[in-house]
Amino acid sequence: MVGASMEAGTEAGTGGAPPTAGDARRTDGLSFAVRGVTMLGQLVLPLGFLAFSIAKDEKAGALAFFAPIVIAIIAFNFAIAYASWRRFTYTVGEADIRVESGLLSRSARAVPYERIQDVSLEQKFLPRLLGLTEVRFETGAGGKDEITLRYLAESEGERLRELVRSQKLSETVGTPAPRETPSEPPVLFAMGPKRVLTFGLFEFSLAVVAVVAGAAQQFDFLLDFDIWEWREWQRLLAGPGGWLLALGVVGQVIAGALAIVSLLLLGLVTGLVRTALREWDFRLERTDKGLRRRRGLLTRTDVVMPIHRVQALRIGTGIVRRLFGWHRLGVVSLAQDSGGANHDAAPFAQMREIAPIVRETGFHLPRGDADWQRGSKNYRIDRVVIAALFLVPLAVGCAVFVSAPLWIAPLLGLAWITVLEAFHFSHDRHALDPDQLYSRQGWLSPKLAIASRVKLQSVEIARGPIARRRGYATLHLGLAGGQMAVPGLPIARAESLREGVLASIGKRDFSALL
Amino acid sequence: MESASDLTPLDPAYRTVLRIVASIWAAVFLIAACVAEFAIPGWHGVVLIPVLVVSLLLILRVPQRRWAARGYSVAEERLRVVRGLLFHSDTVVPFGRVQHIDVDQGPLERAYEIATLTVHTAGSHNASVTLPGLRHEDALAMRDTIRAAIRRDTQ
User: Fold this and answer.
1) CB contact, 8 Å: B118 with chain A?
2) A117 and A235 housed in the same domain
3) Is A297 inside any structural domain?
4) Which residue of B lies nearest to A476 if distances are taken between CA atoms?
5) Is A190 among the domain residues?
6) d(CA A487, CA A375)
7) Chain B interface, mutation test: which of A455, A459, A476, A504, most B Cβ atoms within 10 Å?
8) What is the per-residue pLDDT for B43?
9) Could you tell me which of A158, A138, A162 has the C-alpha nearest to residue A148?
10) Domain range for A52
11) Residue A3 β-bridge partners
């Protein structure tokens, strides 16, 4: 079995005539250019450092020596890229898609249409400028059997997607009839600029700070002074900032507050920028093939989740978001989504906007008469006891060995854990519907998982050594493309849930669901 | 509701295979312990005796417990696999959810004519459920039963 997805070479496509099924085609010529530019971009930083270190050592003559070597490396890379591009071909066959590639070791992969879950299109910044798109055929086998074509012209990518879909629907082969563009499919959910920016405000992220701190640590040799030595900062600040230090404690507190505020601002701006880049012009539409989601500013992604492959839904929120009523709807389905098994169907929406989407997927939110039941009390008590087993000796040790009243901290921690577990016990619930299983977990940011009873793959009841004696268990539900577990159920309830789910599964075979 | 008494136990040869594997490991550790004993000045038996005790436990007692803790059942068109001493786990896979089936035999298992049945599902959790210690013919028969159930359901 061949390995992971392959890189594509390119060549200019044949002129306007639509190719019949069965031609071996190369990917678009321009993708070669994109690949070259990306590679150069990757080489700039290492070359820059090399040149910098050489110049620093004042061996300017060595630069002239290294230049031909660098040019040779670049030329070699281009040659390899061109050769791999020429070797990479794809063929749309009668029953499968065949991809042949490889320079030294040829590999041919054939993926039958039945195993292709869907075709997703992704456009990063540079390919989008050139009118190219990356086409990915997703199989349910967890990313192992994917085919990625980089890069095809946009029109060709769309044509391929329609072709694959119609092949799967009709299972007949011939020249596919040109599809007339359908009328605009109904938009289920969209995020305009205002909503995206609001979303960004909630996505506080200090990732930039970590990067800057890391960079400061790596490159501190570039600066004249040692930034980790606070006396240096004092010397620097002595001039302009001297009046600040002269203020005494008050001044230092103000300075500290200013630093924190600037950090907060930095986090806010980072979150805004990252969210805007990821979610710009978010659109969720109901097409006849499923839910189509498009989003992204620099990298535009275009994914379709077939409705009948939706295994479960997840509705979540955040601590602060909940106060304003913002929720997130994720869909668990068989197709991949750049690594996550949960697709974001509506990352930032009010519940009244989420309800119609849930209806479209064929699920429904829990009704008023759902029989919500709590988990096992013993489970929560045991968790508190285990925490106490760690924290109480810690407190005793602190009391004995440390003079300061540090022993309060572990006890406070224990009190907090007790409160948390008590709250979880009273608020974490689950329910079984005639056609769905619900699990609600979480305190400050509650999450609701909705699983279809028919679409589960397996049911497991797991009990650790303590759980066996205390009479509770964890129910693991096998979902295709995700995980769902309900911890801390009384064993009788777990077994009755399992019986109910298995009775529903037994009625329909899996292939009938696909 | 199926209780533990409905479960079919595994083949006793599974116990024997576990014991043989445990003996090999125990031999390795005993040799290491003897070497350590000679390296440490003075014959105290401080390393050898614990290793000896643990090895005896591993060879005599643990395989018996592990064999007794496992069971399976193929009633009602479902495969139910129970395993685990400390971390007990009771997994049920309906025949209609089985993607494909493997029957494997290691060299020791071939000598004793037992096999391991592995059932693959489409779920991420429990993507494959293994059932060791079946007689080879029983494993093949179970595989055919499951296949027949799948073929019948998809007709």
Assistant:
1) no
2) no
3) no
4) B125
5) no
6) 8
7) A459
8) 67
9) A138
10) 10-170
11) none
* ipTM of this predicted structure: 0.80
> pLDDT at position A3, please?
35
Q: Residue A206, Cα to own-chain centre: how many angstroms?
A: 18
Residue A404 belongs to some domain of the structure:
yes
Predicted local distance difference test score (pLDDT) of residue A145: 57
| Maximum pairwise Cα distance, chain A | 85
Contact, A506 vs B96, CB < 8 A? yes
* HSE-CB of A275 using CA atoms within 13 angstroms: 23
Please check whether residues A157 and A214 belong to one and the same domain.
no
Looking at the partner chain, which of A334, A341, A505 has a beta carbon nearest the beta carbon of B96?
Answer: A505
Q: Which CATH number belongs to the domain containing residue A109 in this structure?
A: 2.30.29
- Considering only CB atoms, which chain B residues are within 8 Å of A483? 124-125
What predicted TM-score, i.e. pTM, was given to this entire model?
Answer: 0.71
Q: From CA B121, how far away is CA B39, in angstroms rounded?
A: 52
Inter-chain touch B90–A462, beta carbons under 8 Å:
yes
Say whether both A213 and A125 belong to one domain.
Answer: no
CA distance A203 to A199: 7
Task: Give the model's pLDDT for residue A8.
Answer: 38
Q: How many residues comprise chain A?
A: 514
| pLDDT averaged over every residue in chain A | 79
Say yes or no for a CB contact (<8 Å) between B1 and A499: yes
Whether A214 and A165 map to the same domain: the answer is no
Q: pLDDT tens digit string along A111-143? A: 777 777 778 888 888 888 888 898 888 766 555
**A334/B97 Cβ within 8 A:** no
A163 and A240 share a domain?
Answer: no
Number of domains in chain A: 3
CA-to-CA separations, A476 to A483, A497, B125, in angstroms, rounded? 8, 11, 8
**CA–CA distance, B87 with A70 (Å, rounded to integer):** 58
